[in-house]
Amino acid sequence: MRYYKHLYLSEGLKKKKEKVIRKLENNKVQIEVYLITVPEQGENQLEILNSALFLQPSFPKKEYFVAGIAKGYEEALELVEEMTKEVYNETKGADIRSYILRKEQED
To answer: This protein's superkingdom (predicted)?
Structure first.
């Protein structure tokens, strides 16, 4: 997994960022953790995936670009709303995917 330089985190995970990422990298179960990813292809702007999916043997093994991490699905939705507001305020548009990919390349 690759993580966005300006990773969005829900309020409950801001202090636990390193611990949560370490557990993700070591395939530890974190049922309440949801990842907001930027799809490489397709029409979707973002995808919300439960971290437990990555532990399934049949789940596709590919490089995911994680833009946000949230504790619980509701917080993941709130995080997507926050991301959308930021993108709109900066660009007056709603192309979240392009905005995140551009910001990743800038710094």
So the answer is: Bacteria
Question: pLDDT-based confidence at 106, cuts 50/70/90?
Answer: confident
Residue 21 and residue 88: Cα distance in Å, rounded? Answer: 28
Do 35 and 49 form a contact (C-beta atoms < 8 A)?
yes
Question: In sequence order, what DSSP letters do the residues of the chain get, joined into one string?
Answer: -EEEEEEEE-GGGGGGHHHHHHHHHTT---TTEEEEEE-SSSS-S-EEEEGGGGGSTTS-----EEEEEEESHHHHHHHHHHHHHHHHHHHSS--HHHHHHHHHHH-
Residue written as token pair 């799809």: 39
Assigned token pair, 33: 């953790």
pTM: 0.90
Structure tokens given for 20: 């949560």
